[in-house]
Design a protein that fits this description.
The chain has 174 residues and is α/β, with parallel strands linked by helices. It is built from seven helices and six strands. A six-stranded mixed β-sheet has the order 1-3-2-4-6-5, with helices on both faces. Strand 5 and strand 6 form a beta hairpin. The protein is globular. The chain starts with 19 loop residues before the first strand and ends with a helix. The model has no long low-confidence stretch (mean pLDDT 98). The structure holds uracil. The site of uracil has 13 residues, from helix 2.
């Protein structure tokens, strides 16, 4: 991943951000793509959204090291624009799909609308599906709001905190 040049997002990157955590985790979190700090450090969710993610994990008794955290695209889109469909499909078919196959988690948690669409293309808007649990093959899929969106909208933050509790329930069943 760190030497990939398969799409133009590689042209603007400082570091690619493959993901990090437990390579045998039961839970994989999938965000959208690296932001400024992630690009600088080569690590996922290390900026403000990452701080919130850490707090949310802590609220259900988990630590970043207990899960695996990654993104749909591994290189920062310019000015943090949305990743384009061809960038997402190139990157996910080369990397995310293989990461998920290799880790073989029981639960995939999608953060934001882009990530849930990757797994359930026909799903409604994120405001309709947040906090819901789906089944995709042998895995559970939990759709959550993106922590960055929650940082800017207080009501989403409260909702995201509540939705995170759903994970506790799912973890009891696996
Ligand atoms: N937002 C994301 O979607 N991913 C990150 O790694 C950081 C912020």
């Amino acid at each position: 991943i760190v030497v990939c040049t398969k799409c133009r997002l590689s042209e603007g990157r400082t570091h690619a951000v493959p993901g990090e955590g437990d390579s045998k985790a039961d839970i994989v979190f999938v965000g959208e793509g690296p932001g400024y700090y992630e690009d600088q450090q080569g690590k996922p969710f290390v900026g403000q959204a990452g701080q919130l993610l850490n707090e949310l994990l802590e609220s259900i008794g988990l630590d970043r090291n207990d899960v695996f955290i990654t993104n749909l695209v591994k290189c920062r889109p310019p000015q943090n624009r949305d990743p384009e469909p061809n960038e997402v499909s190139t990157c996910t078919s080369l990397y995310l799909e293989k990461q998920i196959d290799a880790i073989n988690p029981k639960v995939i948690v999608t953060l934001g609308r882009h990530a849930i669409r990757e797994f359930l293309p026909d799903v409604g808007s994120i405001s309709q599906v947040h906090g819901k649990v789906f089944r995709k093959g042998k895995r559970y899929l939990v759709a959550l709001y993106h922590p960055a969106a929650a940082l800017h909208q207080g009501n989403l933050k409260e909702q995201l905190k509540k939705d995170f509790q759903v994970l506790t329930k799912v973890l009891k069943t696996i």
